[in-house]
Design a protein that fits this description.
The structure is a single chain. By secondary structure, the chain is mainly alpha-helical. The chain contains eight helices and three strands. Strands 1-3-2 form a three-stranded antiparallel beta sheet. Helix 4 packs across helix 5 and helix 5 (about 75-85) packs across helix 6 (about 90-100).
Length: about 170
Amino acid sequence: MMFSRLNNCKSVECDVENRQDAVNNGNDGMDGWPTGRLLSAAARMVEHAWEAVLREYDISSAGLVVLHVVSTGPATQREIAKKARVTDQTASRTIERLERMGYVRRQVDPDDERRKHVSSTPAGTEVYHALLERERTDPALIASIGEAEPELRRLLLELIRAQQDRSSGSP
């Protein structure tokens, strides 16, 4: 299945041999790590690198998600929360901060005054595109894997969707 493609080792015995080889050869031992541990370590490292980049722009990772959601057009706070997989309250706080920074604006829905549509401002669009470019070119981020990025992306999406299906009870 998925993990057998991510990890050349297809058996427990092979994994144990890889770990022992790593110790014997004096390397850092990562070659013998289980795939889940590698994935977790990589995610933490990329997340820390992203946090440093986002601090340069005084934006949070949640703020980047909101800018991503509204990059294709206005969305309600509830739609943003759903797409970002956060609570309405978390989305609201993030949107308020982005609005204070001038990256988004909220407009009342003329059909329902309780509902507000959030859209990106020119400044928000500029920051969003700068961050996309940074992801593509900054070696501290995902750019360091070069041409392998589309395949890694495909595998990560496959893993995430499989986990979602498992947690929702789908076979």
